[in-house]
Amino acid sequence: MMTKYETGKLSAKGVVAIPVKVRKILGVEEGDKLEFELEGERLIVRGVKQVSIWDVFGSMKLDKPLVDVKELRDQYREGLIADDLQRRKNLEE
């Protein structure tokens, strides 16, 4: 089904003002990006919304518990210190 909403005029720089009704239907606002697709002689325009990490937070199901990065860092440092102490001990012997 094709619906004609309004017409726009192309400027010399290739700029087209998108009618308010069409912007509302696409759900786009100032600063949003648009995606253009050519289908024969037909132009399809879609609004492209940027997705924030917070929009998808919690959407993945994990089979393992989350890891505390600070705890991992501390364990790694403890391992480095233990290795260094062992090397020093070996050099003294």
Highlighted features:
DNA binding, alpha+beta, SpoVT-AbrB_dom, single chain, two-stranded antiparallel sheet, rod-shaped, 93 residues
In terms of topology, how is this protein built?
Blueprint: H1 20-26, E1 33-39, E2 42-48, H2 53-56, H3 69-92
Antiparallel strand pairs: 1-2
Summarize the structure.
This protein is of the alpha+beta class. The protein has helices spanning 20-26, 53-56, 69-92, and strands spanning 33-39, 42-48.
Structure report:
The chain is built from three helices and two strands; from the N terminus they run αββαα. It has 93 residues and is an alpha+beta fold. The protein has helices spanning 20-26, 53-56, 69-92; strands at residues 33-39, 42-48. A hairpin with a 2-residue loop joins strand 1 and strand 2 (42-48). The N and C termini lie far apart (86 Å). It has a domain at 63-92. It is rod-shaped.
Sheet with most strands? 2 strands, antiparallel
The strand order across the widest sheet is: 1-2
Distance between the termini: 86 Å
Number of strands: 2
What does the overall shape look like? rod-shaped
Structural class: alpha+beta
Which radius of gyration do the C-alpha atoms yield? 29 Å
Strand fraction: 15-25%
| Number of helices, counting only DSSP H or I runs of 4 residues or more | 3
Helix content: 25-40%
State the oligomer: single chain
Low-confidence stretches: none
What is the average per-residue confidence, as pLDDT, rounded to a whole number? 84
- SSE order in H/E notation? HEEHH
